[in-house]
Amino acid sequence: MSSILSNSTEWLMETGRLYLRPVTVDDTELMLAIWNDPAFIRNVADRGIRTVEQARAAIEGGAQKLFEDYGYGPYSMALKSDGSMIGICGLFKRENLEHPDIGFGVLPDYCGLGYAGEAAAAVVDYARSELGINALTAIVSPANEPSIGLIKKLGLTFERMITMPGEDHAICLYSMVLTN
């Protein structure tokens, strides 16, 4: 994995233990690892991205396009302590959802240590204070109890079960209003 020491990109957010910045093609290895993590495949989706070339193309057509079109997207997370790239957390535009969707993915060695929650809290604050977003949603598999716990801790509440376009199973929709 790359380190913040070798990356000249400006860090947009900072928490007690993390730096966050927009995902770029510099994060190809990180994204490839996340997309192929068995927990990500089980709880989110199998994107079918198996090569560096596919990951780079997905970042260019996905993450970078989100930032260009909406001013937000996924943010890569780096440890302040040693610069290790450990995951992503960010906002996603879903065609069938009215408000941005907050999502996260952390490499297996860093799961369960509170990094996703720390990053997600920073992203919620950034969405409210810097982006002027007034509401967020989160979509999650009903079996993904750790993510449901994190979503609830952030203040999102369950709305209903929905089926995303192209999918054949229902997932949980959570939402929250952001106030200044």
Structural write-up:
With 180 residues, the chain is of the alpha+beta class. The chain has one domain (4-131): Gcn5-related N-acetyltransferase (GNAT) (Aminopeptidase). The protein has five helices and eight strands. The strands form two sheets. The protein has a five-stranded antiparallel sheet with strand order 1-2-3-4-5, with helices on both faces. The protein has a three-stranded antiparallel sheet with strand order 6-8-7, with helices on one face. Strand 4 and strand 5 form a beta hairpin. Helix 1 (28-35) crosses helix 3 (52-70) and helix 4 packs parallel to helix 5 (145-154). It is globular. Mean pLDDT is 93; it is low at 1-8.
How do you describe this structure in short?
By secondary structure, the protein is an alpha+beta fold. The chain has helices at 28-35, 38-43, 52-70, 115-129, 145-154; strands at residues 13-14, 18-22, 74-79, 85-92, 101-106, 135-140, 157-162, 171-177. The protein has a single domain, classed as Aminopeptidase, CATH 3.40.630.
Give the helices and strands, then pairings.
Layout: E1 13-14, E2 18-22, H1 28-35, H2 38-43, H3 52-70, E3 74-79, E4 85-92, E5 101-106, H4 115-129, E6 135-140, H5 145-154, E7 157-162, E8 171-177
Antiparallel strand pairs: 1-2, 2-3, 3-4, 4-5, 6-8, 7-8
Helix pairs in contact: 1-3, 4-5
Parts with pLDDT < 50 across at least 5 consecutive residues: 1-8
**Helix coverage percent:** 25-40%
The first-level CATH class is given as Alpha Beta
How far apart lie the N and C ends?
37 Å
Silhouette: globular
Major sheet details: 5 strands, antiparallel
**What is the total tally of β strands?**
8
Strand proportion = 25-35%
